[in-house]
């Protein structure tokens, strides 16, 4: 028995269920990237000169929006998507949804509602929490704000290299 075979049959909790075959893993991860974008990639696309090719939707309440939101985002709470999305958005432009953070599935519910209406949509992983924690500027009801990057979520200098 090889070391790999031994590990796969052991009580190792990581390998108790063997990894997927490489082709299945590639299909899964490619699909994941079709559904998700991270805050760093969204921020880089928004900061680049010209049209980023997508619109960002904040799906939270008005009180949450006022507390802080991604600059340039459109405020469209999830509950209002069925009535307002087709008036506010162009179906030919991809949409990136976000809510509070990884502990909230509001952006997922909003992405589902938009997809059911025929929009091309991705969810921004990490939501507003990680936008602020990674040190990107945001807007509040009082004006612009920005926090120092949290070294547990973003490098202090340069990019993460991912």
Which stretches are low in confidence, meaning pLDDT under 50 for 5 or more residues running? none
Order of helices and strands: HHEHEHEHEHEHEE
Number of strands: 7
Helix content: 25-40%
Give the radius of gyration: 19 Å
Q: What would your notes on this structure say?
A:
- With about 160 residues, the protein is α/β, with parallel strands linked by helices.
- It is built from seven helices and seven strands, in the order ααβαβαβαβαβαββ.
- It has helices spanning about 5-10, 20-35, 40-45, 60-65, 80-90, 105-115, 125-135; strands at about 35-40, 55-60, 75, 95-100, 120-125, 140, 145.
- The strands form two sheets. Strands 1-5-4-2-3 form a five-stranded parallel beta sheet. Strands 6-7 form a two-stranded antiparallel sheet.
- Strand 2 (about 55-60), helix 4 (about 60-65) and strand 3 (about 75) form a beta-alpha-beta unit.
List keywords for this structure.
162 residues, alpha/beta, 5-stranded parallel sheet, 7 strands
Task: Describe, in short, the structure shown.
With 162 residues, the protein is an alpha/beta fold. It is built from seven helices and seven strands. The chain has a five-stranded parallel beta sheet. Strands 6-7 form a two-stranded antiparallel sheet.
């Amino acid at each position: 028995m090889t070391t790999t075979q031994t590990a796969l049959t052991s009580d190792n909790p990581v390998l108790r269920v063997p990894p997927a075959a490489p082709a299945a893993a590639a299909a899964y991860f490619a699909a994941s990237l079709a559904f998700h974008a991270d805050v760093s990639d969204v921020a880089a696309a928004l900061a680049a000169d010209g049209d980023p090719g997508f619109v960002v939707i904040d799906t939270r309440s008005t009180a949450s929006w006022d507390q802080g939101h991604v600059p340039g985002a459109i405020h469209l709470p999830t509950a209002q998507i069925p009535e307002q999305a087709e008036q506010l958005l162009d179906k030919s432009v991809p949409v990136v949804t976000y809510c509070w953070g990884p502990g909230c599935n509001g952006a997922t519910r909003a992405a589902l509602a938009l997809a059911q209406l025929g929009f091309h949509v991705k969810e921004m992983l990490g939501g507003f929490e990680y936008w602020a924690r990674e040190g990107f500027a945001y807007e509040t009801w009082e004006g612009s704000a920005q926090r120092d990057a949290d070294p547990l979520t973003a490098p202090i200098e340069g990019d993460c290299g991912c």
